[in-house]
Design goal:
The protein has about 35 residues and is an alpha+beta fold. Helices cover about 30% and strands about 40% of the residues. It has one domain (about 1-30). It is built from one helix and two strands. It has a two-stranded antiparallel ribbon. The longest helix is centred in the first third of the chain and has 11 residues, at about 1-10. One of its GO terms (molecular function) is kinase activity. Pfam families: HATPase_c. This is Two-component sensor histidine kinase. Keywords: Kinase, Transferase.
């Protein structure tokens, strides 16, 4: 649920959210927002 909310907020601001995973390393989420 938290990721869905974060995705909606980021999209509303014209940004993007990405996920990077690796076996045994966990997950990392990146958020990019445009400069205005």
């Amino acid at each position: 649920l938290g990721l869905a909310i974060a995705r909606s907020i980021v999209a509303a601001h014209g940004g993007r959210i990405a996920l990077s995973t690796a076996p045994g390393k966990g997950a990392a989420f990146s958020i990019a927002l445009p400069r205005n």
